[in-house]
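Reviewer 2 asked us to include a model.

Predict the structure of this chain.
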Amino acid sequence: MDAYTQILTEARDGVQLITYNRPDRLNAWTRQMGRELTSAIEAANNDRSIGAIVVTGAGRGFCAGADMAAEFQAGLDSREAGAQPAERTRTDADENRGGSDWVALVRRSKPMVAAVNGVAIGMGLSMILPFDRIVSGRSARFSARFIKVGVVPELASTMFLPQRVGFGAASDLMLSARIIDAEEASRLGLVDELVDDEALVDTALARARSYAENAPPHLLWVKELLTVNMGETDIAATQQREIAALEAAYRTPEHREAVAAFLEKRPANFQGLGPS
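Predicted model (structure tokens):
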């Protein structure tokens, strides 16, 4: 995608900063925004100068959920006209984003950090639950508000939210659709880090850089292991996956560089070691 109209992108010292850019609508999500977001993430993943990604929102809101006028009304009109629903192997929220599987994209991506300013409602929340870290400003507000608009949660949020906050808290948040402030979100474990609003983006960028300084293939292996093992009940299967990844890691130039750096008492430099 050559030009973006609903997001902004900026490279900052090896981190790609992606900003939702519909501030007049509190960055409410549209299909166009979803396609642009997918394109920007894929571009960052293919850019060797980028090691991690931060997503934030312009203005007073992070993302106020799907744009009711632009998206929900269009869906109602389509269904009332007799259109048949597509096979539900992917959610409508996935169909958005250029037809991609959003959760799979996030989990196979370079490390992703959310910098939540203002409201993160409905899809604005579920989209970031699979991220590697959620940093929140103190003015942020959160709600799994699906039931209030006559729909149900999506993007595997009925799995990711209980993993972040526990079954009881996830049930409460989804069944009540209540809005919680950043302090409560921090206590529940919904957000990983709570900072003053003015420090939000810089904090998220610093956290992302702490990931980006590590070996790129190993970052992806760790993310893959976390993705497949977090719901695994078979300890042997968990260890088998780890052993397979470990054997692959031993054979990488990044591992050799890390050992050499340790012996030489210097920081490791992983730049330019992998395949071009």
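The chain has two domains: 7-212, 216-263. The CA atoms of residues 94 and 102 lie 6 Å apart. We have added this to the supplementary material.
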